[in-house]
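User:
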Amino acid sequence: MTSKIIVNNIESDTGIASVTFTSKVNLSGGITGNFGSDNIGINTDNPIQTLDVRGEATFGEGITKADLDWGTDTNQRVYTFSGASDGGTNPADGVILLANPNTNPSNTRVGGIVFGNKVVGTANTSQNPGIKVAIEGRTNTNISTNADDTGGHININTKPDGGDIRAVAIFDSEGRVTKPDQPGFFARRSIAGDGRAAGAQEWSVTGSNSFNVGNHFNPSNGRFTAPVTGRYLFTAAPGYKQSSIDFNFYFRINGSNNSEPVRFIGALNSHSTGTGTIIWWIAAGDYVDIYVGYTHHVNTGLNFFMGYLLG
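Assistant: Predicted structure:
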């Protein structure tokens, strides 16, 4: 039985239309020649691209931009699709998009990993409404005529139910991270002066530096409702001790006193106050508020209540 066949040359004009191998083949001299309009398939009988490799591939010398023919794609992008159901143009599960760093170098995406349904191309939601998640590499605004001096940053984008895809985490070129949609709030008391009643929920999200990301704080009842389960930071200085009246306040969960960071009993001067801070594990749907236990004084510019999701 012959265990090895050595073929020195197969010429295209010898009349041999195809050669089929049922076991491993060692092509020590490489493959050269003109294959015409036919596609070449590895591990597939139905290649749909010029070179269609089904499975992992290793390129020992690496692939660089100069090695590739980018064809008519003026954006010079490489697309690798995952879970494609029709040969790569309609990915069922996701897509990896890698773009040339020289494409639109002024403050734009230069590469990304995009996951979604029926996604082809860029992360433009008007053109690709199926995109669900995108990790984008972007250049900073050019700082000089030398492109090598310009830094880059990373945006992580997600699409909420019923909403548009947007950046939820931004890693700048110095490694600093901002999360524009992280739930949190800063509120001030809305009515000033002596005689504010015990338990008064008089709040306003107004004034310098106030915020209410996600609108999870309700100023009409003073409640912050946790949108997700996690660790939350709360800090408050909700009022001042009024003359001859004791003063305290509680952090409450669902209306139950859970922490009393400040209590003044006795003859402290009027307008004495204190600040309380706590980190709690809060379940989604639970609410946190402040309860001042006695009649008290309020300064609408200085008394506050704030909270923030840590994670």
